[in-house]
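Re: the 265-residue chain
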Amino acid sequence: MRKPSLHEDDWEYVRTLLPADLEESAYRTSALIRCRNIPDAASFMRMALAYAVSDLSLKDVAAWASALQVAQITGPGLFYRLRQAEPWLEQVLAQVLREQVPQAAGGFRLRIADATVINGPGQKAVQWRAHVSITPTTGSLRAVELTDDSGGEKFSRHHFAVGDVVLGDRGYATARGVYAVRQQEAHVVVRFNPATLRTCDEKRRRIYLAEQEVGFQKWGQSSSNSRFQSPQISGLPGAIRPGTQPRPLLGFRPVPLPRVRGPEK
């Protein structure tokens, strides 16, 4: 059995990188209410990291922890604990990454919503998906949510402040997603996806932006209306030219465009 790279000397250094309120956050998120078989939150985190950085099974990690007197727990018991600790691990990850990068000052508050897949041992293509909200000016993570492979990418997973400028790729360019951000009074810029966004003029006549890409020289005003009975939301179409072909973008902002109405009955 190959030992994880978390021996005593390594662990003492890793411990300095973790939040000081590790015990309190574990209790607050119900990750470690009763310290039965696991003495404290630091020991629990050590086992979680050992499982993450090695190819050991949960049974092997439990045996490793027992040999080093980190904890006395079985493989199934460790599985149950880790499953209950998902919100805690998400919170610790976001807090650690946020503290490593200084906060930006001034200017627009840019936010990027994105997701990536996480694969473990085995043949399954996608096992988990990490949904993140990022501040691009500093590279810091504002939020992390872990789901299984059925968790789709969507703006409604994230919380934004009034006035934030939220960026998303084509996977986030849906009418419901744009509406979710606008309900929080934030701005949205997404790469246009004609399969999920229906664009219309002020009289609700259909506009096909793909046919007008060549004519995009500067930002102009248009509106977006969903095919899912969502409200009509005003937006600004534009295009960038990273190569020879323009890529259409849509921007949605609350002022001075009309206020968003509630969903149609």
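The beta strands are 110-118, 128-135, 140-148, 165-168, 187-191, 199-200, 222-225, 232-240, 247-252.
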